[in-house]
Every structure is written in C-alpha cells, then in structure tokens.
Amino acid sequence: MTNKGFKAADVSRATLEKRPEEIAGMFNKVAKRYDLMNEIMTVGQLRTWRKAVREALDVGPGQRVLDLAAGTGASTAALLETGAELVACDLSEGMIEVGRQRHPEIEFVHGNALDLPFSDESFDAVTISFGIRNIPDTEKVLSELARVLKPGGRLVILESSQLVNPTLAKGYRFYLGKVMLPAASWFSSDEDAYEYFLESVLDWHDQEELGVLIKGAGFKHVKYRNFIGGVVAIHRALRR
C-alpha cells in the first residue's frame, strides 16, 4: 500500500477496520487540539512516558531516528535533546501541517506505515508512540520497521495496553467510558474521534501478544515495561 493516489476521507471517526484513508481523515480533523487532548487524557503522565521512550532509545549525535505516526511531532520534539538526526513520519497531512508550524526544526515526511518511503537499513533506531494500534496490519508495520532499521538497531513502542489486575481493569474501563470520553467531548468538538480511540484501546493486544508479534517480525531481546499497572506499556527490542 503506497501513498500514490491516496486521499484522506472526510470522516469524523474511523472504524476498527482502520482503513488508512479514514484514519488520516479523522486525525486531520483533530490535529489542532490533539496535543492538548493528549495532555488532558493522560493527566500529565505523557511527559514521563516520553522520557522513558527517550531513555530506552539511548541514541545520540550521529545517529538517525525514525518517529513513526509522529502526528504533530510532539513525540519527536521530546527526542531533540539527544542530538540525533530525527525524522517524523505520519499518514495525516493535517497533523504534519500543524507539526511543521510548531516544530520547524524537525524533518516531517508524509508516509504510510505499511509501505514506508525509506530505504532498507536507513535508521539506527525507530519508535512509535500511541500509533501502532491505529494501523490495520500490526505484523506488516513491524516488518516495515525492521526493514528500515539497521541490524542491531533499537525499536521502542509506547502504546496503550492491558491492565494486569482484573479489578483495576474493570475500573479503568469505567474511567474510559464515563470520565475520559465525556471530558473529550467537553474540551473537543470531535467526540466521535475519541469514541474510536476508546474502542481501539480496548480492542488492542495485551503486552505478551504484542511481544510475540515483535519477535516474529525479526526482532530479538524483546522486553516490556508497564506504567500505571499496564494502562500503557513500552516495548523495546533489537533488530536481528
């Protein structure tokens, strides 16, 4: 699947089929307020998680890093202090437009995660934050990340996950539906999009399942770290 002939759909929300044109169209609509909503919905924890991503990547000057599904580049900007060469790639042209205005120092590239517009073994590290669950073929995108990553290069994924404690998991589902979604409708005019976000979180793989997929895509030394009991998790691995 390439970007040739690609056109974002004029939709307020995507479905769990995660058609790229619907995903792009939905994110185009929420682009301007997306970063604000992330801060609100994560209750300020986002900076802690991004710091953990930066530490897990362990990159520095002279290394090239791909931030996939980078959106407006907020996750990429969190890596600027590493001194590495950063490339932010996203499917949504609306998100990229906002990102270029906010972060002119970052290189933005429009691209489809299932057919990345980069050469083989062209990055020292790759990362994706809260984006992989929005891509329709998890195994394919992991294979693409392995393709563009140099042997021994690092993969770091920050994503919503599944709580380990069943009682807490039930409470978290209540929070998502009865607290987070109403808050999203209060602060944003795009309630439909946040209904999709909620559904995609609940439908996503657990930590072990994602780890198996990562290993099967050509990675080794797969490990993960839970935050807030598994509300989110960071997976890291090395390309074989």
From TrEMBL:
It holds the Pfam family Ubie_methyltran. Its EC number is 2.1.1.163. This is Demethylmenaquinone methyltransferase. Belongs to the class I-like SAM-binding methyltransferase superfamily. MenG/UbiE family. The gene is menG. One of its GO terms (molecular function) is demethylmenaquinone methyltransferase activity. NCBIfam families: MenG_MenH_UbiE. Pathway: Quinol/quinone metabolism; menaquinone biosynthesis; menaquinol from 1,4-dihydroxy-2-naphthoate: step 2/2. SUPFAM superfamilies: S-adenosyl-L-methionine-dependent methyltransferases. GO terms for biological process: menaquinone biosynthetic process; methylation. Methyltransferase required for the conversion of demethylmenaquinol (DMKH2) to menaquinol (MKH2). It is an enzyme of class 2 (transferase). S-adenosyl-L-methionine binds at T72, D90, N112, A113, S129.
